[in-house]
Amino acid sequence: LHFLHLSRQPPPRLRFSAMCMAATLASLALLPRSTRVPSGPRAASAGASLAAPAIAVEAVSESSVEEAAVFFVEAFWVSTNGGACSGGALRLSRKERRLLEAQMADDFRTRYGCSWRVGSQLRQGEGLLPSRLLLARGDAGEVIGCVGIEAALLDPIARRVLPARSAEARLQTELAALTLHPSEQARWERLSELYVTRQRGLRPLVSELLPACTAAALLTDLAVSPAWRRRGVARHLCGHGERLCSDWGLPGLALKVEEANGAARRLYGGLGYEEVFRRDDEMATRVARLPAVTRADTARTLLRNVPSSVLTLAKRAEERKNVRE
Length: 325
Known about the structure:
By secondary structure, the chain is of the alpha+beta class. Helix content is about 35%, strand content about 20%. The chain has helices at about 10-25, 65-80, 95-110, 165-175, 185-195, 205-210, 235-245, 260-270, and strands at about 55-60, 130-135, 145-155, 160, 215-225, 250-260, 275-285, 305-315. Strand 2 and strand 3 form a beta hairpin. The longest helix has 19 residues, at about 95-110. Residues about 1-20 and about 25-50 have low confidence and may be disordered.
């Protein structure tokens, strides 16, 4: 997993730190290939799974996004208390649950909608960085798990991961900046054509416009129904995520986990992930119950950001033949 090229020189005080990050990321190329798949940053404990049942996996569309949101609220926010390191199941009133379900449906549409919107349906600034939300269904057609994967940028200088929408905005800004310099006209035309046609995928654009960053797949939004945990569902879903990563021509996967979540960190370490970034000034999302949910509260959000130390972990993607960029 060759995750970094520092062809732009950072400020002197950041140069040593960036070089350390480059060494850490480059060292991932020496890791043995793993046949195991990750359980993701928002996962309940996958543990030692039983024999996995037959699982049907499908991409979420506009017709199923609300179903996905209802499942995620129950399996992630309620059942595991939002992946918090302590505490039991979250108790929500019926109105709070409905409000949270609506918020998650809107969030899923914002982050994954470009996977089902095409052509003129795409919103401005959408479509360069792919994303997908997957659902797993059981024998009766019920939703038993979900996982999200999106193309992202790893910034070793800022020690941040930019998800798809933020990364696309940054690439567009860099591309627009070329128009301010007449000497860059030919380069702008070439990269604009590459941007519009998407013929060669994301990595060539990143290497030219943001050479200090690295394109990767970000694994997130993993949740499994309590009744189906420890049966290989999480691993099965993340296997699909890894295949998407390879299909998109990305060299590796990343995920974020709170430093205090020791169980998750041990799990990811066993799956081949290694720490590449650590930030003590990050934010983690929690559900903050409202004192009383009335009709006037329906415009309010139940999700709150709280300070947290967060680690970014990464691993190399499996190589596949005939990969589409």
